[in-house]
Structure formats: structure tokens, C-alpha cells
Amino acid sequence: xxxxxxxxxxxxxxxxxxxxxxxxxxxxxxxxxxxxxxxxxxxxxxxxxxxxxxxxxxxxxxxxxxxxxxxxxxxxxxxxxxxxxxxxxxxxxxxxxxxxxxxxxxxxxxxxxxxxxxxxxxxxxxxxxxxxxxxxxxxxxxxxxxxxxxxxxxxxxxxxxxxxxxxxxxxxxxxxxxxxxxxxxxxxxxxxxxxxxxxxxxxxxxxx
Length: 208
Ligand code: GRF
Fold this sequence. Notes:
Helix content is about 35%, strand content about 25%. By secondary structure, the chain is an alpha/beta fold.
């Protein structure tokens, strides 16, 4: 069993999808043992508490500089014995220390088909606004390992949805969450926990 630690900042619908997937056996090779939030008021923390999952809060502004924050987050994740760290809507930038400590052991979900609409500045509704501005006919979400270059790590899973003529950033966001994010994040976590993901040359090789 792998220890899964989930990093959150907001509503936590992706965290909920992970909790549900553990309950219904989609995630069977790992267990969510802690939820860490950058925001003490995140609803995601309530979701964790309701499911008897340990919680912690770590705020960038409580540290003098970025380096000490980066070290503190690394120490916290190590003290929680994290085998896998999942970024499920975590809104604080990660530093070299934590990223290197969890190389190929940290999964992020991005609400677009990488390499489209990703990288610095592409978060939240901005991603879907950009997709609609471009007029793409498909969008979706991507799970990937975290590297120091934003949204550029090895891709684990992607799925697409159709973009409709009357979509707003909000309707597109919702369709992508419901049809893609809440499905591929738990599946990617199980692939990792069951040892089915290998990384070679910045690409993943998934065995079945
Ligand atoms: C999701 O759209 C995810 O792709 C992005 O942040 C959002 C988090 O939503 N990284 P939630 O907190 O899981 O509801």
C-alpha cells in the first residue's frame, strides 16, 4: 500500500474524486493518509475531516523566504511518509527542494490537453478562456509528473471532451472536470500505486 498525500487549496472536488475512488475500489493499491492545504479555509479540508483523513496547513506567507517554505513543505511531506504526492488544485508554486525530493512521485492535474494552454499563468478559468479564444474543438485534461518546468513533466493520462458553440469558460470547465479530471486523476493514482508507470526520456511508459 502506498501512502498518498494530497495537496489542495480550494474546493477539493478532485480530492473528493480520489476519496470516492478509494471507497469504490478504483484506487486499491494506495491510501490517502493526509491532506495538506495552502489555505486554512479551503473546503477541501472539510472533505478530508469528514473522511477521517489527517490534515495540515502550510502557508507561504508564514515563511520569511521561498527557500525556507520549500524546505518546510519538503520536511512535512517526508514526515508524512508520502510515497506519492498529488497536486489537486494546489495554488502555491513549488520549489526545487520539494520537486527533487519527489521526482516522478508527484502528480499534477492540468485542465487542458498539454502542451496546449499550459505553463505559467494558465490556471483556473484562464485556461478555458484561452481555449475558447483559440476556438479549439476539443479540450480536456492531463495528468503528469511534476518537474521544475511548469506543466512540462512526463504525461501520464489525457482525455478529451468536445467544445460546444455556446460554451462559456465555466461550462467548459465543468464538462472537463466531470468527464475527465475526476476520472483520470484516480486512474493515474492507481497506475502509480500499482507500479505500472515507468519514466524514460521525459515520457511515461504505462504497462497493463
Ligand atoms: C481543477 O480544475 C484542477 O485541474 C486545477 O485546479 C482545479 C481544482 O479544483 N489544477 P478542485 O479544488 O479539485 O475542485
